[in-house]
Amino acid sequence: MSNIDAAKAYIAAWNARDPDAVVATLTSEGTYEDPGTGGPIGGDALKGYIGGLLAAFPDLSFELASIADAGPSTVAFQWIMRGTNSGSLNGLPPTNKPIEVPGADFCEVENGKLKSVRGYFDGGAVPRQIGLDIVVQPSEIGPFRFGTSVAVQTGKMQAPEAFSITSLEALNDETAEIVREGSRAALVDMMGMDGFIGATTAKVGLRMVTISAWDDADAPRQVMREGAHAEAMKGMLDGSLAKAGFTSVYVKARVNPYLLRCEACGKMRREPAPGADCDCGAKLPDRLPYW
């Protein structure tokens, strides 16, 4: 088998969407590396990586754009990766959006099998094409730590009467991801609960925080009795997910007047009625939820 034939067999295994077949085209110590692997991987780790891609893009395929010998044991080829995000990617729901990403691989071939594969492509292309934000920021600077947040709103317009706060310090990155998945499931449950107004979650390092707004102070008790949140609390209490944490409910002490800016004159209007006009005569925009 020529070096180019060995590389083509590798591409065909990817297009067969068969992780075992891909690994079988490599030598026993063969490795694969691209911008998403965090370094060279092989064997079961490579199978898991491929399986994750196929779970997110079940129709994943590679069009071979060019291929050539680049040395006595090196093959270089260009490809175009295509697929549809119809499965979960990193715990996120599918967007059902297509991707089309060009890239190139360089393979070292030994006795008809690939000793190493190093792939190059724009690591931000996939998330951008399926509608995900790419946030580049430091993990911490001095006393400041940075992270990500998510908000969910029911559309209710009234001011909250109470807030519930859950804060967990995950054991490690793996359990932090489990907590994040549980938080997403809990928010879906909460959308159907009486008295729920909205919530904001934040992840900063291993600290996971959820602040939820409610119609009254008794309404948050629902999350303790049922659904994904109740299951997640078990993981906190038995120590399998977190090394520290607390829950609490805070009631309203004071809510200042709601202010809405007129887009015509730029002035802020206090407590405007729905559909009201500004003093300048222009129609005010729709009010936004408090939380």
What would you say this structure looks like, in words?
There is one protein chain. The strands form four sheets. The chain has a five-stranded mixed β-sheet. Strands 8-10-11-9-12 form a five-stranded antiparallel β-sheet, covered by helices on one side. It has helices at residues 3-15, 19-24, 43-56, 125-129, 173-190, 221-225, 227-237, and strands at residues 26-33, 61-69, 74-84, 98-110, 113-121, 140-141, 144-145, 147-153, 162-170, 196-204, 207-214, 242-251, 259-261, 268-270. Strand 4 (98-110) and strand 5 (113-121) form a beta hairpin. The protein has 291 residues and is an alpha+beta fold. The chain has two domains: 3-129, Roll (Nuclear Transport Factor 2, Chain: A); 140-251, Alpha-Beta Plaits. The longest helix is centred in the middle third of the chain and has 18 residues, at 173-190. 25% of the residues lie in helices and 35% in strands. The chain is elongated, with a radius of gyration of 26 Å.
